[in-house]
């Protein structure tokens, strides 16, 4: 992490929000907090207190959780001033417990579907999005030259 005091212009702008994710060994992890009193894991990370038991912020420790889980619910956004529509936003029940609300990049989302997060780099910087585990696997398989020619059906 860069110290904001080492650049002349940083103090003139609003503080840059801290990233809510990082990559560990090639896998996206979500920065969250875990309550030492009740064990609740919160995402996004909390500072002032535990949303479950009310413990003071001193009882919260940072925790990195896997950015993977099952699709809990989703909706389609048709109006957005900044992004091309339509797109889908879903809530993903992560294996560490918290529901994570995030953009989906899935052809046909299904409740209960296994998802994992990836980082997308676009004009507005890095964003997190969830993709289907099987679609990601299919894409990886299609990229592999030794099996690319064995596909029998191609959609679209
Ligand atoms: Zn707690």
Explained architecture:
The chain is mainly beta. The protein has 2 domains: about 20-65, Rubrerythrin, domain 2; about 65-145, OB fold (Dihydrolipoamide Acetyltransferase, E2P) (Beta Barrel). The chain has 2 helices and 9 strands. The strands form 2 sheets. Strands 5-6-7-9-8 form a 5-stranded mixed beta barrel. Strands 1, 2, 3 and 4 form a 4-stranded antiparallel beta sheet that branches. A hairpin with a 5-residue loop joins β2 and β3 (about 40). It is globular. Bound molecules: zinc ion (ZN).
Essential attributes:
156 residues; mainly beta; Rubrerythrin, domain 2; OB fold (Dihydrolipoamide Acetyltransferase, E2P); 2 domains; five-stranded mixed β-barrel; four-stranded antiparallel sheet; 2 helices; globular; disordered N terminus; disordered C terminus; binds zinc ion
Could you give a quick summary of the protein structure above?
By secondary structure, the chain is mainly beta.
Q: Treating each run of at least 4 consecutive H or I residues as one helix, how many helices? A: 2
Uncertain residue segments: 1-11, 145-156
Termini Cα gap: 43 Å
Domains (count):
2
Characterize the biggest β-sheet.
Answer: 5 strands, mixed, barrel
Query: What class, by secondary structure content?
Result: mainly beta
Q: Tally of extended strands?
A: 9
Q: Whole-number average pLDDT?
A: 83
Write the element-wise H/E pattern from the N-terminal end onward.
EEEEEEEEEHH
- The whole-angstrom Rg is 19 Å
Q: Mind telling me the CATH class of the largest domain?
A: Mainly Beta
Strand order of the largest sheet: 5-6-7-9-8
Ligand inventory: zinc ion
User: What name does CATH use for the topology of the largest domain?
Assistant: OB fold (Dihydrolipoamide Acetyltransferase, E2P)
Q: What is the percent of helical residues?
A: under 10%
Shape from CA axes?
globular
Q: Give the name of the CATH architecture of the largest domain.
A: Beta Barrel
Question: Which strand-content bin applies to the residues?
Answer: 35-45%
């Amino acid at each position: 992490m860069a110290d904001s005091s080492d650049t002349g212009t940083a103090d003139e702008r609003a503080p840059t929000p801290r990233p809510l994710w990082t990559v560990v060994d090639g896998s996206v992890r979500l920065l969250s907090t875990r309550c030492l009193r009740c064990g609740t894991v919160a995402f996004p990370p909390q500072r002032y207190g535990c949303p479950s038991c009310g413990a003071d912020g001193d009882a919260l420790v940072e925790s990195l959780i896997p950015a993977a889980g099952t699709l809990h619910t989703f909706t389609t956004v048709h109006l957005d001033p900044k992004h091309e529509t339509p797109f889908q936003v879903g809530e993903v029940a992560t294996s560490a417990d918290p529901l994570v609300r995030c953009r989906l990049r899935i052809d046909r989302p299904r409740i209960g579907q296994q998802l994992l997060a990836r980082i997308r780099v676009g004009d507005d910087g890095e964003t997190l999005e969830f993709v289907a585990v099987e679609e990601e696997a299919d894409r990886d398989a299609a990229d592999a030259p030794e099996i690319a020619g064995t596909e029998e059906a191609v959609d679209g």
